[in-house]
Amino acid sequence: MAITEIDELVTAECERKAGRPRCAKAHVKILEAGLEEVGTHGYEAMTMEAIAHRAGVSKATIYRRWGSKAELMLDAMQVASCGMLGFVRTGTLRGDLENQMRALVQFLNGERSSAIRAVIAAVQSDCELAGRFREVWTEKRRAAFDGIFAEAVERGEIAGDADFELLIDLVWGPIYYRFVSNFEVIEGCMVGRVLDKVLPVFVK
Q1: So what's the architecture of 3-80 in CATH?
Q2: CA 69, CA 47: separation in Å to the nearest integer?
Q3: Is 186 in contact with 109 (CB distance < 8 Å)?
Q4: Are the beta carbons of 76 and 116 closer than 8 angstroms?
Q5: Residue 154 burial (CB count, 10 A)
Q6: How far apart are CA 61 and CA 64, in angstroms?
Q7: Alpha-carbon separation of residue 24 from 14, 65, 83, 194, 196 (angstroms)
Q8: Would you state the torsion angle of the CA atoms of residues 173, 174, 175, 180, taken in this order, to the nearest 10 degrees?
Q9: Cα separations (Å) of 3 from 6, 33, 150, 159?
Q10: 3-class secondary-structure state, position 58
C-alpha cells in the first residue's frame, strides 16, 4: 500500500489519539517502521527504541499513541490490510467467499508477508499480543462473515442451522496453514480447490 493511501487511512486515527491531523506522517512512519522491524528481527527482538530510531521519532512520541508494541503491531496490521480484506458482494455464497479468500491470499503474499508471519508466530507465546490479536484481528474478521451467511440463508443457498464457525475454519485454515508452515507464495488456484471440497458439505 502506498504511503499516500496509508496517510489518508490514519488521519482520523491520529485525530483521535493525538488530536492533530498533522500527526499523520509521523503515525505512518511509526507503523511502517514497526512492520519493517518485526519482519527483520522478529517480534520478541523488536523494541520500541528500534522502531523510534527507524521512524526518526522519539520513543515518547510512540508511547503517546501506543502503550505497548502489541498495540502498535496490531494497528500496523490493520492499516496495512485496510481496504483489502473486505467482502465484495457477488450474489452467491461461493462468489463472496472466493473474492475474500483471494484478497487474503494477495495480502499474505504481499510485501509485508515476513512481518505478518512474525506476528502470527509471536501470538503463540505472547499472552498480551495473543489477546489483542484475537480481539482486533480474528474476532472482527470472523464477525464480518455474519452478513454474508445471512444473505446466503435468505437466498436458500445454505441452511440457517449450518455450522458457520466450522465453515470459516475450513475456508481460512488451509490458507493460513500454508502461509505459516511453507514460507512460500500461496497459489491463487488453491482458493478454488478449497471451495470445491468444502462448500458441497454445507450448501443445499
Answers
A1: Orthogonal Bundle (1.10)
A2: 8
A3: yes
A4: no
A5: 10
A6: 5
A7: 6, 12, 18, 40, 44
A8: 90
A9: 5, 12, 36, 44
A10: coil
pTM, entire model: 0.78
* CATH architecture of structural domain 87-201: Orthogonal Bundle (1.10)
Cα–Cα distances in angstroms (integers) from residue 197 to residues 142, 152, 174, 203, in the given order: 21, 18, 12, 11
Q: Grid coordinates 521519532 are at which residue?
A: 57
For residue 76, give the nearest of 156, 154, 145, 132 by alpha carbon.
Answer: 132
What is the DSSP code (8-state) at residue 126? Answer: -
Cβ neighbours of residue 108 under 8 Å, at least 6 residues apart? Answer: 116, 175, 179, 186
How far apart are the C-alpha atoms of 24 and 7, rounded to whole Å? 6
- pLDDT band with cut points at 50, 70 and 90 for residue 5: very low
Could you report the per-residue pLDDT of 93-134, keeping only the tens digit for each? Answer: 999 999 999 999 998 998 888 888 888 888 888 898 898 889
**Cα 201-148-105 angle, rounded to 5 deg:** 80
Domain ranges of the chain: 3-80, 87-201
CA distances to 23, 53, 85, 107, 194 from 46, rounded to whole Å, are: 23, 12, 27, 22, 36
Distance CA 98, CA 87 (A): 10
Q: Residue 127 CB: number of other CB atoms within 10 A?
A: 9
